[in-house]
Design brief:
23S_rRNA-intervening_sequence, 23S_rRNA_IVS_sf, single chain
Length: 110
């Protein structure tokens, strides 16, 4: 199940958004690599590694939400939306690969 399928998510989707989406997208998308960097530097502590990577995954999902708002409000085209969502989905797969394969990134088993 995707978070977009949740009833609570659908009901909270605003009908109009007139400003600040660019800033929200910028902040959440920049947080993705920043928290990946933190995770990598904390890889000697497996729980911190997982925590930071799940934070990164969450920021990536937040970016997807802001992109959905942007296309819904017609601030970006469907083509741009599809391009960015495709990239975001790929990033999500890579982050989840790191979560599922921590030993490949220098994390020692506890």
């Amino acid at each position: 199940m995707r978070f977009q399928d949740l009833l609570a998510y659908k009901k909270s989707f605003p009908k109009e958004e007139t400003y600040s989406l660019t800033d929200q997208i910028r902040r959440s998308s920049r947080s993705v690599p920043a928290t990946i960097a933190e995770a990598y530097r904390k890889r000697i502590y497996p729980k911190h590694f997982y925590s930071k990577l799940t934070d990164s995954d969450g920021e990536n999902s937040e970016t997807q939400v802001w992109l959905e708002f942007s296309v819904s409000c017609k601030y970006i085209s469907e083509a741009i939306y599809q391009e960015f969502i495709s990239e975001s989905l790929e990033i999500g797969k890579l982050v989840n690969y790191m979560i599922l394969n921590p030993e490949k990134f220098g994390v020692k088993k506890e």
